[in-house]
Design brief:
four-stranded antiparallel sheet; mainly beta; globular; 201 residues
Length: 201
């Protein structure tokens, strides 16, 4: 798989499927468990889009409009991860927001966060760009890292309301990435200053 300008190409031997994903370019792409494709554009005018990953096509199966919460205006998606068993995607943004989308529903009325709306929850765990997201299955929690030098845990069972700061480093440290070892209950994080943490939750 490779990205080129505004198109996405999936190459399987001699077969190529093309997705005209976003005129402004694409900066995030994921496969779902059912083989569908999720793309997020690299501009504030772009949307999260769901595609048929087998055949491509000129139009997406579904598009999810960006929410605007309070006085803060959505910018761009900077990270994505999937729930391992539910049709749910978590998206981090360049302004520190994390959004939970349920892929079974249309966008609907974005401010009505109910079971029939694609937008389920959103929060602002970071003061800058969210660099990575990782799901912790044994804790049903989402770990997020950011350019603000922090890693935060949000428990999904309480609708993102419980947040715990696991790492908080002073400026200009940026936490670049995180990963979770589901069997041992530990997670890794690495920073722009060369530090690596392994923490048991």
């Amino acid at each position: 798989m490779y990205l080129n300008a505004s198109n996405i190409y999936i190459c399987i031997f001699s077969q190529v499927a093309t997705f005209p994903a976003d005129a402004c370019g694409v900066n995030q792409v994921l496969y779902t468990r059912t083989g569908q494709l999720l793309t997020a554009g690299s501009s504030s005018a772009s949307q999260l889009r769901l595609w048929d990953g087998r055949s491509g096509g000129s139009s997406a199966i579904r598009a999810f409009a960006h929410p605007i919460s309070g006085s803060r205006v959505f910018t761009t998606y900077s990270s994505m991860t999937l729930h391992p068993s539910l049709p749910v995607v978590y998206c981090g943004t360049s302004d520190g927001e994390v959004i939970e989308w349920d892929l079974r529903y249309e966008s609907g009325k974005q401010q009505q966060q109910d079971s029939n709306t694609a937008l389920q929850h959103f929060m602002f765990p970071h003061t800058g760009r969210v660099t990575s997201l990782a799901y912790h299955p044994s804790r049903d929690a989402l770990l997020s890292s950011g350019v603000d030098g922090s890693v935060r845990e949000s428990l999904l069972s309480t609708s993102f309301k419980t947040e715990k700061t696991l790492i908080e480093e002073p400026f200009p440290c940026s936490i670049a990435c995180t990963d979770v070892h589901a069997d041992y209950g530990t997670f890794l994080a690495a920073s722009s200053t060369g530090s690596i943490w392994q923490i048991i939750l």
